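Lecture notes, unit on protein representations.

Consider one protein chain, 155 amino acids long.
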Amino acid sequence: MDTFYTNILPLLLLLGIFIFYVLIVYWIKKIPKQQDPWEKAGVKLDDNARPVCPRCLTPVDSPFRHYCSKCGEAVGKYTRYIPFVNIQFNYSIFGTIWKNIKSPENSRSKRFLYYLLIIILAPLMPVFLLIVWLGAGIFKIFHNNTAPRKDRDSS
């Protein structure tokens, strides 16, 4: 009985796991692939097509631009993930809140909610600014230490 538990049972468990894995892979491969809806509709992009800003629909000047030149919306594909470029993207919520407070289209309850957000987030702003300021200072110190100095003698 000891040989069954020590030798055969682990092999049966491994065989069962392997069979389960094979069945899952087979099941996933049987799932029919869905056709791209743009291909189904017969839509083809023009060769001269350019991306547009999602907020104001202005054509983007360059595919390497990170922000719209008209409204400031993030238009770059990876703008949200670039550390020093995405500062404007991450903190644009505060400008949006201020614009919504001044807008006469918003109800009093929405304005109250926006004021509440400002009251909650305002004490955190100096902390964020301090972190950004320290990070920029450390970056500047590191950059200045690694760059060759012009005032040093080359001898």
